[in-house]
Design a protein that fits this description.
The protein is α+β, with helices and mostly antiparallel strands and 627 residues long. Among the domains are: 43 residues, no CATH class; 107 residues, no CATH class; 99 residues, no CATH class. Helices cover 28% and strands 13% of the residues. It has 17 helices and 15 strands. Strand 2 and strand 3 form a beta hairpin.
Length: 627
């Protein structure tokens, strides 16, 4: 326990405890209270009381988490670091740092007292996160209908802790150390339809066929609706046995690569082509192609089920593909490949299955890229939280796919409506789709920010019923006065008028309105401008009179405005690349700041060239003149 002795403490400190002398053996310990003088352990006492978890509390937590991911904040405490000038007022107003940390530290998905022991036959290494995985898989399958093309590949969850044994090392992946996940995704959009977490050889001895079967059988109705679909996979899964199983069980076709070998002894299940040697590879060149086919019949041997084709093609390296769709000769197909010598992309002979495989095998890669663009994962050593953040990122990526699909269909509908005059009014021909901004360069970022603000707004409106009474705020909200916010009216507090750039907005003062003299309608001039009338800074308090012929214009001491007479004559503004000269000055609007100060003239500036025409007949007769 330490080198302290009784002499280091007073008698009063020792008398209040039932002191027991320390044992001499180093491998024995005595029970010691936290406030004992000899206690050397540090006890962290948290004075904050526990706040009950509610739906609004969780919605606000996830909203802040999404905004932190959109802003790519590396550490979750940064939005509350006001002393460093990094704080975000709308996040600080929504939730305090301790309340956010409460969910982050104590989030659980099962009752740890009910966990099964390792010897139980129903034990699973993922039992701490299994309920959440099952619920999210059910939502993924219910919200989207898979297309014709699907891809199966591996994804990685970054984790380097020592709490689990099934950490994998995959040097070809961007994330090399972590938890491996088998993913079934849409090959065209990257939508994650199903996934399976690999728990190591000790806990999972599934073959590639069994892995694919588990991914397909996660949806019971998917077996009957998978006929005619094409599944793209890499050399880990591809084999003749896999092709036969997928066609027999799901009536689905397979396109996959094969790892070539130099094995000489071959049987009917082996790939028919060898791996070329180094000298042979240099001789054939790019575009070299060979194919071989095998016909597969039913049990009677009379009905042809499908044709399996083995295609090998030379790119920079030798490529081998095994497929039972698009079987046949190349028929002059070509693809663009980069040539190192000419440093250009050139057309190369190929088989149609090669560009088809390159196009549709990237579904899982698109899914990984969409997740990692804005990752909500927080740093931590708990392995099941890494899986939790991975599934949340997958949910956001899937929501993004659905949003993009809906917006693109709506834009296509509007595009067709503009071509058809009969339905133009129904679709809103002149209106701009507010969701179109999510398709641009910053669409993913704007989508994340709007989603985070919407979740925070829904949470606060759900539990803060009376916003005029601060005593009714939820306990997870900021209890101190709200801070000034510079979000530009996007957060719930600015929308409700509770805060702003300089705090809560103040009511504008009512200024006394100076009555203007009433005149008959016949005496009013029709010369009006679309701009706001400028206020005169003349020192005289009396109502100004009309300028008489021969008098000069009065300077309004304001910035340049469009001449009211030029606008009445429907002249055009001067183009940017056009220079005003004496010959073309009568064609364009002039900008001036002088004119007649009388109220009936509405304080319109009048240019020098129009002033002689305007300053006649009490400023009324010029309106009937047509240049």
């Amino acid at each position: 326990m330490g080198n302290l002795t009784d002499a280091d403490y007073s008698d009063d400190e020792l008398d209040q405890y039932d002191y027991v002398a320390e044992p001499k053996e180093k491998d024995r310990f005595i029970e010691c209270r936290s406030d004992h003088p000899s206690a050397r352990h540090r006890y962290r006492v948290r004075a904050d009381e526990w706040v009950q978890i509610t739906i609004g509390y969780l919605l606000c937590f996830f909203g802040i988490l999404i905004i932190i991911a959109a802003l790519k904040v590396r550490f979750w405490r940064i939005p509350w670091m006001e002393s460093e000038g990094l704080g975000l007022a709308f996040i600080q107003n929504a939730m305090s740092k301790n309340r956010f940390d409460q969910i982050r530290r104590y989030i659980r998905f099962v009752n740890n007292r009910r966990l099964l022991s390792r010897g139980n036959r129903n034990w699973s290494p993922l039992q701490k996160i299994n309920p959440f995985i099952e619920k999210m898989l059910e939502r993924f399958r219910a919200c989207y209908t898979m297309g014709q093309f699907m891809s199966i590949d591996e994804s990685m969850i970054k984790y380097k802790g020592k709490q689990i044994r099934f950490i994998q090392y995959m040097p070809a992946k961007p994330i090399k150390h972590g938890i491996k996940v088998f993913v079934l995704s849409c090959a065209e959009t990257g939508y994650c339809y199903g996934f399976l977490i690999y728990c190591g050889k000790e806990n999972d001895t599934s073959t590639p066929i069994e892995i694919v079967a588990k991914l397909f059988e996660q949806e019971s109705d998917f077996i009957g609706s998978s006929a005619g679909r094409v599944v793209y996979m890499d050399n880990y899964y591809t084999s003749l046995t896999m092709i036969d199983y997928m066609y027999k069980q799901y009536k689905a076709f397979v396109v996959g690569t094969i790892a070539l070998t130099k094995k000489k002894s071959r049987d009917s299940n082996d790939f028919p082509f060898h791996k070329l040697s180094g000298p042979a590879t240099k001789k054939v060149g790019k575009g070299w192609l060979r194919i071989a086919q095998k016909k597969v019949f039913d049990s009677s041997g009379k009905v042809l089920k499908y044709i399996v084709q083995a295609t090998t093609w030379m790119d920079r390296k030798q490529v081998a593909v095994l497929h039972n769709i698009y079987a046949g000769p190349a028929e002059g197909a070509r693809t663009m490949r980069y040539n190192r010598k000419t440093q250009r992309r050139e057309a190369v002979d190929t088989h149609p299955i090669i560009p088809n495989y390159i196009r549709y095998m990237r579904g899982v890669d698109m899914f990984d890229q969409s997740m990692n663009d804005y990752n909500i994962s927080l740093r931590g050593q708990r392995w099941y939280l890494r899986i939790f953040y991975y599934i949340c990122n997958a949910a956001l990526a899937n929501m993004r796919v659905i949003t993009r699909d809906v917006v693109e269909k709506e834009q296509e509908k509007r595009r067709k409506a503009r071509q058809d005059d009969d339905f133009g009014e129904e679709v809103g021909r002149g209106q701009k789709d507010p969701w179109a901004k999510y398709l641009g360069t910053m669409g993913w970022f704007q989508w994340m920010m709007d989603l985070g603000h919407s979740l925070i707004e829904a949470a606060i409106l759900m539990e803060w019923t009376d916003m005029n009474d601060n005593s009714t705020r939820p306990k997870w909200m900021r209890q101190a006065p709200l801070k000034p916010c510079t979000c530009g009216g996007k957060c719930v507090f600015c929308k409700q008028g509770l805060t702003g750039k300089n705090g809560p907005p103040k009511k504008p003062r009512r200024r006394p309105v100076t009555p203007r003299p009433r005149t008959p309608s016949s005496a009013r001039t029709p010369a009006r401008s679309c701009s706001t009338p400028a206020r005169s800074r003349l020192s005289s308090s009396a109502v100004p009179v009309h300028t008489k012929p021969g008098e000069k214009r009065v300077n309004f001491e304001i910035g340049g405005k469009n001449c009211g007479v030029c606008m009445k004559f429907r002249r055009k503004p001067t183009p940017k690349d056009t220079r005003r000269t004496q010959d073309n000055a009568h064609l364009y609007i002039s900008k001036v700041r002088a004119g007649c100060p009388h109220p009936l003239c509405h304080m319109h500036p009048v240019c020098k060239s129009c002033w002689p025409l305007f300053n006649t007949n009490n400023h009324q007769g010029w309106s009937n003149f047509r240049p």
